Each structure stands twice: as structure tokens, then as C-alpha cells.
Amino acid sequence: MAAIHPVVMPVWGVIMTEGTVVKWLVAEGDDITPELEIVEIETTKVTGGLEAGVSGKLRRIVADNGSTLPTGALIAVISDPEVPEAEIESFVAGAKTEVPTAPVAPPQPATIRVGDIEINALRLGEDLPGTPLLLLHGFGGDLNTWLFNHGELASDRQVVAVDLPGHGGSSLAFGSGDLASLAGIVAGTLDALGISRVHVAGHSLGGGVALKLAELRSDRLASLTLIAPVGLGAEIGGNYIPDFIAADRTRAIKDVLGRLFADSAAVSRDMVEGVQRFKRLDGAGDALRTIADAVFPDGRQKEDLRRSLGQVPAMVIRGEADRLVSASHVTGLPASVEVITIADAGHMPQMEQPGPVNQAIRRQMAKADA
Amino acid sequence: MPQKTFRQAINEALHQEMKRDDRVIVMGEDVAGGSGASGDKDAWGGAFGCTKGLLGAFGPARVRDTPITESAFIGAAGGAALTGLRPVAEIMYVDFVGVCLDQIMNQIAKFRYMFGGTASTPVVIRASYGAGRGGGSQHSQSLYPIFTHIPGLKVVVPSSPYDAKGLLAQAIRDDDPVVFLESKMLYNTTGEVPDGAYTIPFGEANIVREGGDVLLVAIGRMVGVAEEAAKTLETEGISCCVLDPRTPSPLDEDTILEKTEEIGRVVIVDESYPRCGLAADISSLIAERAFPSLKAPIRKVTPPHSPVPYAPVLERAFVPTPDRVVEAVRAVAKG
Description:
The structure holds 2 protein chains of 2 kinds. Chain A is an alpha/beta fold.
């Protein structure tokens, strides 16, 4: 039977309740392939291209450029070419009446207590079977780092993203702040959530925490996907850690965040504001300095965790244009470790090139699950 | 992120700073309860409800009702600051500052300077300002230019709940006297406000909205007016940047000048009187330091040089509206 595929306002990450159609990149009547970016969507956090996901002909553009709609609202219709015009017409008419009038409330993170430390965690797909995936962000980030990955990866298993201690909505006081203590708190979080075994995807500092977890509790890890991780080399490019801690005014923060991306224009106003708001909190500066002193004394990485790579099936992903973690960090790794280099991405490939990164994480988990 | 009102944001900052530092006290009319009415304790929480709950949390020694005598209690706040406390004194309407201006302008603002830097006066004077509530000409003025004019005072006019909380915390922790003015039209507005304590530094403008055709400079309640105008103008294809200086003193001159140089067309929206007002001050800054970058004359949208009228129709005509801003922007955007 000929199929009609609705294109709806996507949900990117956990905070998106509505989006704005910036620009259609295709016209009614065009042939569509699944990987084709058909429309540019702007959210409060970021602007990105929406891939069609299906093949067919673009039959109707329902939401014009500039219109803002709640997530889930119909923005276009793709169908097999043979679907008659009348059927498309009635599909659009039917969908219009079902468009939610108010934005759907996004899933809310919960506070998990680990001893006297509070960890902010967001779980998606809680009821899905299989080994869950844990997402660990990098230094100075938070669980929104996984904006383009979390929802996507949670389509067939539970995915938990946490704010590391000293970050986001988690406690700003948390002990020594070295990798072992951070890994201990992450393990405690899994205990509190009743999760015994996980796949872990860790970015940068989160990758170091994941490696430490592999060293201390390899029994709990099904696989590791390390994205531009800490722990595989000594140097950090461009004085990033001290500069990030020192940056206070908007321009300084924008400048330092720009170094994370291959295209520094990807840094949105809201990203800058989010970091600035976090850094203004009482205790945030001390928290960042505590971790930096423990993990990156004198701007260099303290621990070499290459030996932990053998403990658990591991994959390493690095953006080709990463200015913080150099290519030497991902060379000379054990043969069992697959290394993937992502083009047109800097230190944040999961944000800049989410498609290939999500694909790699899925592949790594599937391999380990098999 | 939790949504809170401007009033709650002020209240939360007071709670957190009083908890953080025993030296912080709150004083003013009815801040501990409107005891003149029925004798209830904490019945009102100040004239605008901002101090509600402080009496129960911190007790009568630190939350002090005062007589209706600004000259006495503002003077007392200055003395208390000089001797080691950090008072937050509330003047119900900034219009009442007339009776205690000597204490503020000749005493509080001058101690550090007169005593060669050996004294500091960490006092915060909070007051409501602005038109829109039918308060008449003695309860509706936007008098921040008076304080901005006086060296030795810092002056803060927040525009959102987030800014109100962070700027008030900064004001209380600051070692110099701060006049903190709250638009009475903003108390019930809501926005995202973190639960934890945080500070926003003084002298750092906030770019509320990016845009490339015209720069709108606005403070306090006028930020919302400018934003609304910017939304209308966007549908006409004119994109406006909205810049909120947040603190008339110290003023973030650098950001105002940088944005002027980048955009070249400026409209200043301000609720204070036009003569020697904030718009005039910012306009002169731009004319003096960024004139070559201007592609059109600087425009000001302000009330007329008149007392604030009581009649609702006239009061509405007095305060700058989005429509007037739109008109001014259209005029400079041409050519």
C-alpha cells in the first residue's frame, strides 16, 4: 500500500518544546531520500537540519518559513508518488485538527541521592528492555551536551544522562574531584537507579570517568564509547581548562566555547548564556577548580588510563578538527579498540555530527550485546 | 528550570543572602508585618510583598519595621553599614527619596571618599519605581537618573526575575552603597530563576536579543517594551538588537559603543524624564565616542517632560509603548 509519511516538528534533546521553521531546503514535488536535510529548524539552543528519514516525494509544506510550532506538530507530508492528491489533502486536514495547541512538557530530570551528594539525571526509555546506556558529559558541560543523541539513542533502550558532580544541576560540593571519586559517584548513581550493567558513552572528562569506571568496576560495563576522551594523552590543546574557568563575560565565554567546535559559529547565544548562568552560581567556580586541580593539574592530564582500555570492549571517536585532544591520543591503542575519526567536527562531534556519532554508539553497543 | 515571579526572585535573594551572612538586615515600612493594621506579624511582607517570610526565618532583630520616616531610617541604615552591618533598606516608592536625599547623597555616597577609603558603606536601598499603576505624580516616577548623577552610588534597574535575583545578591555583597530600583509593573512577571544563589556582576550589559538593523537600548520595564517592538518589527523585516545595560552606574559603555559601531542605528527607550535622563546620558556617550559609525540620528523614546499624570488615559499616553518604539525604529531604519 502506498504510504504517507508525516514530517513533524522534531524533539531534539530534553528541553525542546517547540521549534521554528527557519528555511525549507526542498520544495513541494521534490524527490526525497532518507539522509536529505529537508528543513532548517531553530530551537532555543541550536539551529540544525532535519533529515527526512524516509524516501518519497515532498507533497505538502504545512508550516511555512518563520512559523513556530510545538514539537510533534505536522510541518510537511512526504508520500509515495502514487498517493492521490485528495488523500494527501484529507491527511493534512485530519492532522491539523490534532495539532497540540500547547507545547508538550518535556521529560524532567530527577534528583538522585548518592550519600549526601545530589546528582541530576535524566532517564529516557525507562521501560525498554536491554542493557541501558549511560551518557557522561565533559568538563564544564552538562547533560544537554547530548541534545542530539539522548532521544535518538533511547528509541530501543533506556538511556540515562547525568550531570557529573560539580556540573549542571548536580551538587557543587563533592569530595576530591579526581577521576576515581567521580567514577565512584557515578557508580553510586547507577546503584540508586537500580542499574547493574551499562554501556557507557563518555565525552572528554566523561570519557576519563568512564575509563576509570572500567578500571575499578569493569564488571558493570558492557561497552565503552569514548568521545575525545580524557585519559589517553597528557596535553590539552590551547590552554582550554584555565581559560574556561577564567571566562566570565559573554565574549570571553563565546570565544572559549568556540574552540570546541570545528565551526565556531555553532556556538549559539543560548549555549553561551547557559554556561554563563552556571558559572554565576555560588560554588560553581570552586567546583570547576576542584576538578581541574585534581584531573588537570598545571593544565595537563594527571592520569594515563590507556591500560584500562583492555578491560571492556571499547571504541574511540575523535573529531578530525579537535583542538583539545590531538590525534596522537588515539594512536597506538590496543588493536581491539576501533578508532573512528569524524570529519567536520571538533571536540564536540556528538553535537556537530550527531548522525555518524549516534550510528557508531549503536554499532558499539550492538557488537557488545551480541 | 523553575519559573518564578520577579517578586519571588527578590524574596529569594533576600532569604539566601540573610542566611549566608548574619550581618545582612532588612528594614523599612511594614517589612515585618503592617502591624498598624491588625497587629498581625508579617501580614504584608512590605508594601509589595517582597519581604514576606523573612521575619519568621530571621526574627525581629534582623527584620525591622520602621516608622514612616525615611529621613530617620535611611540615615540609620547608613550608620549601621558604617559600623559593620549590611542593611537592606526599603523605601516604598522611590518618589519618597526627597526627604532622605541628604542621607543618601551627602552621607552614604560620600563616606568612603571623605574618609580616604578607610570607611565603607555596604547598604542597599531598595525602592519601587515607575508609572502604570495609577499612583499619581508622587508615586510613579523613574528617578534613577538622580542617583546615577551622584558619584559614590551604584544604581541597578533589573528587567527580569533572573536578573533581579542575581543583581540583588550582588548588591548585598557589594561593599559600596547600591540603589536598587524595581519597576512595580514587573513584580508579577515570571521567568526562569535557578534555586541556588548566584550573582550577576555590575557594569555588564545583557544582550537580550540579537539583531543587525537597529540597536534598541532599554532598561528595567522598558526592556520588555523594546522586545515587543522588536517582535513586531521582525515581521516587517527589520531586525533589532535589544541591549539592557542593567546598571546605569556603573554603565557598560564598552558594550553600548561596540554594538553601536556594529549596527550604526540606535533608538534609546527610557521611562525616566527626558531632560538629564538616562536616554540623554547614553545618547551623549554614543554621540561623543561613536559618531562616525552612526548611519542615522540617535532617537530617544521617553515620556514628555511632565509630571506623571494620574488619569489612566493620560498615564498610558505618558509611558513609552511598543508602538512608539516601532515608529522611532521605522524612522531611523530607512536609507
